Every structure is written in C-alpha cells, then in structure tokens.
Amino acid sequence: MNFSLLNRPIFLQLFLIISIVMIIPALVAFVERDYFVARTFLYSSGAGVIFYTLIAIALSNAMKIQNNFEKLLSFILSYLFLPIFMALPLVLSIAEVRLLDAWLEMVSSFTTTGFKITNLETFSGSSVQLWIGMVSWIGGIFFWICAISILLPLNISRLEIGTNDLVARSTSKGYENVNSVTSTARHLIPIYIIITISLWLLLTLLGVSGFQALLMSMSVISTSGFDLMNNDVSNVFVIEGIILLFFVFAISKSTFSRDINDIQKFRIFNDPEICLALIIILAVTGLFYTKSIFVLLSKNSDITLLLLITHLWGIFFTVTSYLVTMGVESKVWFNLPDFALGKVSTVCVMGLAIIGGGVATTAGGVKLLRVYILYRNAAQEVDMMLHPNSIPLKKGKGSISDNRNNRLMAWIFFMLFITALASFTLIFSILFDDVAQGLALSVSALTTTGPLFENAGYEVLLTEINQIFKIMLGLAMIIGRLEILVIVALIFPSVWSK
How far is it, in rounded angstroms, from Cα 12 to Cα 56? Predict the structure, then answer.
C-alpha cells in the first residue's frame, strides 16, 4: 500500500498539514494555562490526523496521477471545505461563536481578506489570535503555490507567470506529475518563511512585542491586514516604513524569482507591474496630498514642514497599502482633517483595491499586469482609429502586452470581475438597503481587502447579518481569491481535458 503524502490530492495534503499545525496554538494555550482551549486544538488536530489516515488507507490501492480536472476541483474544494475544519477549534472552545460565524472567520483568514467577523480577541487569549494569523499566512503561500503548480500548466491566465520566469521553468517539466506541487512548494516555502522571519526580527528590534510582531509579519506577508498595529506601539513611522518595504513582494512576482544574480530581472523600470504601481501610487498620493493641503489652508491651520511631511507619509503609506490589497491605513491617515473618510478618498481607495497588486502574489484585485495589458491594448486600438493606415510597431519576442492570448484573457477576466462585482453589490445592497454600503462590502470581499469596509466608515457587525448573506459573503471572498477564471475553467472541459 502507498501512503505517501506526495501522491495525495492537494486538498488532503493541506488538510493533514493544517491538522499538524494546530498543535502550535495548542502549545501556546498550554503555556498560558488555558487548558480547555489547548485540549480543543489537540483534539481537533488528532481527529484531523485520524481522518486523513482513514482516507489514505481507503485510497491506498487506488491512487493514480491526478488529471487536470481533479487538480482544479481539489484546489476549489480546499477553499470551500477546509475553513470548516479550521473553524472547529473556535466553535468547540468559544461558546459565543457559532459554526457559520467561525466558518466565515476562517474563510476571511484563509483567503487573506482580513474581515473582522467575531471579535475573537474579546473571548479568547493569544492561541486563537495566533491561529487566525497562521491561517491567513498559510492561505497566502497556498494560493501562491497553486498559482504556479496548477494554474500555469493549464494555461489559466497564462500571463500571470511568463515562460521566462525561473519558477515557472522549474515546474514546466512534467505538468502531469502530482509532485509538481511539492517541487514548487519546496522552492517557494523557504522564501516565504525567510521573508516572514526577517520582518518579524526587524519589528522586534523596533520595540514591538514578539507575539504582536509575529502577527504583524504574517499579516503583511499574506496581505491579510490582520492585527497590524495597536495604539500603544511606539516608533510608528519607522515601523510603517519597514512594513512599506515589504509591500514590494505583493507588487511584482519578480521579487520572488530565483534569478537573484541576474541584474536584468531586478531593474525596476524593466518590470511593467512595478512601473505601473509607482505611477498609480504617485498619482493618487499627489491627488490626496493636494486636497489635504487645500483643506489645511481653508481652515487657516498652522502649516509646518513637519506637518507637511507627516501628511505626505500617511497618504503614501495608505495608498500603497490599498493597492496591494492590505487595506491598513497609516496612523497619520486618521489625523487628516475632513479627509480620511471623505467620499472622494473612499472611491479612490476602492479603485486602488480593484486594481490590486501583482499577479502570482498574495495580493488580490484585477492585478497590475492585467491592467497594464488592458491599457496597452486600449492605446493600440485608439492609435489604430487615429491612424488606420499605419503599420503597428512589433515588440520584442514574447512581449506580454502584444500577445493576443494575454489580451483576450485580461479582457475576459476584467469583464467577469465587473459582472461578479455588480452581482454581489446588488445582493449586499438588498441586505443593507444601501447601494454604497453594498458596493463597499463587495469590493472588500472580491479584492480580498477586508479592512476597506470598516475603514470606509461602515460599522456593521457581520455576525448579526442574515445567514444567507453570510454564505454569500463567504462565497464572494472565495471567488475573489480564486480570481473567477479558476471556476470558469472548471466548467469548460476544453481547459482541463488537454
């Protein structure tokens, strides 16, 4: 009989990993002498391992190489059903938390959305907070691995990982081998861990407590937006500066490339995503900053150089945070007069979240590379209309923007995203009887920018909404994380029957 973990569907692989990882919050609860919570996590962990073992025994003589349909299905099922198992310790240990609310909490974490659903910090200790942070951290690396090992071989949104990317090349051999997921994970997980530990150590050196620094690190790297900073944290601006540096990993996949010794790979202006991100950030920051100054002048406020620099920093950090779908605002943002919660700024940050970060990263949204391709295509179409007899200039071989398939996929994704956004906005508008509120919740869920909804000024306790709407909210977060194309690909055999 074959019990190898590597030969199991990714759904079962992740199930076993999560079962084992539950031991960590159990140990934390044990140290805190919260023995009931510790037992709950241990029992859930043991039950998960036993369940996996039984499934492994049942399938030991029937294991085969997964086809493309099974890979996609396993990928989607992970987001639908694993949060139920992740929620089990919360339901068993906290009497105030119901199963549906706990499931929604875990969906929010696993999809790296960052909605605060149940305010668990009021009911529990560090172990549960750590578990939520760990789930979001695992969700970030899980999507990253699957984007390369599953979506790439199926040519789903092929533009996401170009053929010149070393990670892609490392998995380009033997697409039909289930171990491709393992080989991809073997390369990516160490990078993910090193980045997380690096940020953790830097935050600790700046005076943040070890536990809070860990939560902040997992939140930043996964772009979930959980537990970024408490009010009692000193050196706020330095900490925000360090965090801002790590946002680059959500802007472009080139920052994770193996080709570290290849200088060409790391020239900023050779990466369309980084260039577009800089343009958007500078443009929106300039717009907000100008408005802030005019507001200050209209109030006859004492304008000092320190005040100007402080406002500029707060706006710059917040704009970048929303673009990478983190959704965490600078401490200065709240001090901007009549500005932070204004309608114009709210619409703008929604637009930033919709654009999103880099493809094949933990960020959500439409993604920078797709926006770049759409812009290039629109520019070419306008140029053809103005100069119909001109001969278009050919780009270099393998040009991203001039590849017909890439343009088509970008347009398809954009239209699907708009359709999903309109549909969920209608649904949530019925819930709140307010289109603006429904739009804010839809954008937050579909772009995996959960803090946006609360930061927009809507103080709604999501545990009190109708159960049907809770399920719809969970589905919206899952669809946003899967980027719609994955679900569409599952429906059409032409994608997975190759």
Answer: 9
Distance CA 117, CA 152 (A): 33
Residue 293: CB partners within 8 Å, gap ≥ 6?
Answer: 303, 308, 311
Assigned token pair, 262: 């290849």
Half-sphere exposure (Cβ direction) of 246: Cα atoms closer than 13 Å: 24
Closest CA to 368 of 255, 262, 288, 290: 255
Gap between the Cα atoms of 73 and 78, Å rounded: 9
Which has the closest alpha carbon to 162: 375, 413, 406? 406
Please give the helix or strand (H or E) that residue 493 lies within, else none.
helix 493-496
Phi/psi region, residue 109 (left: phi>0; alpha: psi -120 to 50; beta: rest), is alpha
What gap in Å lies between CA 413 and CA 493, rounded to an integer?
18
For 355-406, the pLDDT digits (tens) are: 999 887 889 999 998 899 888 888 887 877 877 766 655 554 445 555 667 7
CA distance 78 to 55: 16
Residues 6+ positions from 303 with CB-CB distance below 8 Å: 293, 296, 297
| Vertex 331: Cα angle to 325 and 334 (nearest 5) | 90
Nearest to 339 by CA among 306, 378, 291: 291
Task: Read off the tokens for 307.
Answer: 């005040």
Closest C-alpha to 223, from 121, 131, 102, 328: 328
Rounded CA separation 88/16 (Å): 15
pLDDT tens digits for range 287-297: 888 888 888 88
Strands (E) located in 160-302: none
pTM value?
0.89
Q: Which residues contact 311 (CB under 8 A, 6 or more apart)?
A: 289, 292, 293, 332, 336
Q: What are the boundaries of each domain within the chain?
A: 1-498
* Percent residues over pLDDT 70 in the chain: 78
